[in-house]
Specification:
By secondary structure, the protein is an alpha+beta fold. It has a single domain, classed as Roll (CBS-domain). Helix content is 43%, strand content 17%. The chain contains seven helices and five strands; from the N terminus they run βαββαααααββα. It is globular and about 55 Å long.
Length: 150
């Protein structure tokens, strides 16, 4: 089975220059956990995920421990988030893109995701974005075919 049978063909993209706040809104509105970032010509230049946004907006455990008082001050936290919402996705998106081609085997792409600890892979045909596939897409298809689930 090839990835073109599993991929989503209608890809929701985020334009270069979009703010983190706008990107979050696009992801929440469309119930997606990440999206390719494209330039003004529609060429894919990166990918942004909910994990990237979460890491930018909220502290990790070390930051909380180091500056516990800052994170207990709700006004200061909200002000920090407001400022970060205006940052362009270009500043935090992943630019080293792991991609697939439409005729790649599903198992190969699934393995790439597991090895690289990523949740989605854009599908490119001669450099043009033609689809996207997420781990649940592959998992469901494999379980249905291999375990004869409906």
């Amino acid at each position: 089975m090839t990835i073109k049978k599993v991929m989503t063909k209608k890809v929701i993209t985020i334009k270069s220059g979009t703010t983190l706040g706008e990107a979050a809104e696009i992801m929440v509105k469309n119930n997606i956990s990440g999206a390719p970032v494209v330039d003004k010509d529609g060429k894919m230049i990166g990918i942004i995920s909910e994990k990237d946004l979460f890491k930018k907006f909220y502290p990790n455990l070390q930051e909380i421990i180091k500056h516990v008082g800052l994170w207990l001050d709700n006004e200061r936290v909200e002000e920090g988030i407001r400022k970060k919402k205006e940052i362009a996705v270009d500043k935090i998106m992943a630019t080293e893109i792991i991609s697939a081609e439409p005729d790649d085997p599903v198992l190969k792409v699934g393995s790439m995701m597991l090895v690289n600890r990523i949740h989605r892979v854009p599908v490119l045909d001669r450099g043009k974005l033609v689809g996207i596939v997420a781990r649940p897409d592959i998992f469901r298809r494999l379980m249905k075919s291999d375990l004869h689930l409906k």
